[in-house]
Amino acid sequence: MLGIIFVFIFLTLMLLLKVNPFATREKLIQMDSIMHEAKRDMIVGKPPNKLDRMTRGFYRQLRLAGISPGAFTLITVCIFIIGFAAGMFLLLAPSLALTLGVAATTLPFLLVLVRARDKSEQESEGLEALMSNVTHAYISSNNIITAFEGYSAAKHKGLDPILHSIGPVEEFIIDVHTIDPSVENALRKLQSKINNRFFDDWISMLILCQSNRELMFSLQPIIKSFNQQKIMQMEAQTSLKMVWLEYVTLVGLALGFLLALRSLYEVWFNIMVYTVFGRALFALLVFTIIGTSFYMLRVTRPLE
């Protein structure tokens, strides 16, 4: 019965977030276009509602992490089963085992957030190279389309044409040449496809440069600020690793103490397992660990 209740709650959450548990990774990439539309709406002054922001944010994290909705659902169910089984073996109480199983289902969310963060940091490296190379080419040639075409050609230099990837830059070039000759419209579409504050400022300045070429020299300070932010982030990584090490150590000590109760303090272990007060304290401890884990992710997020 407890398992059925969990499955019902989990499926309800998936429906609210509009997550298709049977979607493939290709379908997930297609869903990313919805987030592009959302950002375009925000550019023209029509922001989405709160549920839409949560849905699109969740899909964006899945895409960055490289995990399809189907794989995420499967991982979550498996983690729940493992957590419940471990709870039954170690704690000998179905209610505490269910608490541990439900708490364990937050691990896939943490996995997605951590992997998405790492992927985002990797993408920022390529994003800085894109902005820098295009800016130099644009200042030299005074032609934004030529600058983007030069960057795309350099990126694919030496690759078999079959292996050429179609990314946001290539889509920008295709838009200008075959769909809409308006460079400003194409730049706004490109802006909607990449979620980065410095990139947004850079594209906005490129749009202004189309009507006032003297502003092109304002592009370099944006790239410099981007680079300085990355340097600050790298310097903070060491301190953040120490904070995470201390946090994981404290969590390990707390959980280890609970396991030690079973063999060293059987009376206290029985109080925790067989009394409402003890179970409430156990649930409070577990969900406090979950809450602090997400809080740690938030306060140690990259500066961007």
* Inertia-based shape: elongated
CA radius of gyration is: 25 Å
Largest sheet: none
Low-confidence stretches: 1-6, 21-36
Helix content: over 70%
**Average predicted local confidence, pLDDT:** 76
Distance between the termini: 45 Å
The total beta strand count reads 0
Q: What share of the residues does DSSP label as strand, in percent?
A: under 5%
Write a short abstract of this structure.
This protein has 304 residues and is mainly alpha-helical. It is built from 13 helices and no strands.
Structure report:
The chain is mainly α and 304 residues long. Among the domains are: 1-104, no CATH class; 123-226. 81% of the residues lie in helices and 0% in strands. The chain is built from 13 helices and no strands. It has helices at 2-16, 25-43, 50-65, 69-91, 94-104, 106-141, 144-155, 168-179, 183-193, 197-209, 219-264, 266-274, 276-299. Helix 6 (106-141) runs parallel beside helix 13 (276-299) and helix 7 (144-155) crosses helix 8. The protein is elongated and about 80 Å long. Mean pLDDT is 76; it is low at 1-6 and 21-36.
